[in-house]
Amino acid sequence: MDGMALKFPSFKFLNPNTSTIRSPPLLRKFSSSSSSLPVSASGTTLREAGPASNSVSLGQLTRPDFPILHQKINNGSNLVYLDNAATSQKPISVLKALQDYYESYNSNVHRGIHYLSAKATEKYEQAREKIAAFINAEESREIVFTRNATEAINLVAYTWGFANLKSGDEVLLTTAEHHSAIVPWQFVAQKTGAVLKFVNLNEDEVPDVLQLKEMISSKTKLVVVHHISNALASSLPIEDIVHWAHAVEAKVLVDACQSVPHMPVDVRDLDADFLVASSHKMCGPTGVGFLYGKSDILSTMPPFLGGGEMISDVFLDHSTYAEPPSRLVKLFTC
EC (predicted)? Predict the structure, then answer.
């Protein structure tokens, strides 16, 4: 490859305030001259994290916390992992938390009154409260645990979607959405007669926000958009989109898988009706995700997966159901 120059794309972000393109911010670095050196979860201080220099990146500082990176590959080279937008690696604190559960209080959640079940239930609900606080939800019952963001979107599609969409109603998406955000609504459209409409990319190869605004009409019942795209590096003005959608009484579902791990996300500021994210993209375990939904909307949605603690009473010919979030999806341990 002598004489050939490798070219990399210059990613840019959409400025939500001006609908123009801006360059992504530079990563902040820690100064080694600081009197108080940061310490990673493994106890590594800034100066221990890498070779002597005037500054060290957050990546260098936290690398010791990720055991999977402590291996040699390809004839002794250090492993370099650059696919975090797809799945992030897990720090030792997460691995220890998982080990602690299986060693100390492995038990069904909400399904027993003995010591282990009570402790597992307490930890489970504490996790729900932490997520609610992390995204500034009004209450923890607005957080529904799922296996991933895909299941969270399917939950909305099969409960709210089938209950509220009818022939001629429109679901507005962009052509840049993840397959998991498109396919469930194709199923719903096929069964209800609803119409899927797609916003194209503009000349900067990011979703055309102005076209999106123009396409919202009285027929629009739902807008499904990503917050940040890991493919295009586009950042959409969710507050504006929500404002336009709510003006015609349409709901908004936000795919926040790429934004929640990397930037402050305040669901009350965004005012979105639904928001989904996955644990595995933010240093958490694989097989865990969540749906945020406004409590007044969740309370109107029928159950998604039957069984377990989602029920209130079961009779031979019918069942009654618990309040959200329990009634929307069966727990994984049951």
Answer: 2.8.1.7
Residue (of 10, 34, 30) closest to 22 by Cα position = 10
3-state secondary structure of 40: coil
pLDDT band per the 50, 70, 90 thresholds, residue 9: very low
Residue 238 one-letter amino acid: I
Q: Cis peptide leading into 325, omega within 30 of 0? A: yes
Is residue 211 a contact partner of residue 172, using CB atoms and an 8 Å limit? Answer: no
Contacts with 50 (C-beta within 8 Å, 6 or more apart), sequence order: 56, 60
Q: Give the predicted TM-score (pTM) of the model.
A: 0.78
Q: How many CB atoms lie within 10 A of CB 47?
A: 12
Among 127, 94, 90, 93, CA closest to 109: 127
Q: Are 229 and 258 contacting, i.e. CB atoms less than 8 angstroms apart?
A: yes
Tokens of 287: 């097989």
Distance CA 97, CA 261 (A): 19
Strands (E), 264-323: 274-278, 289-293, 311-314, 319-321
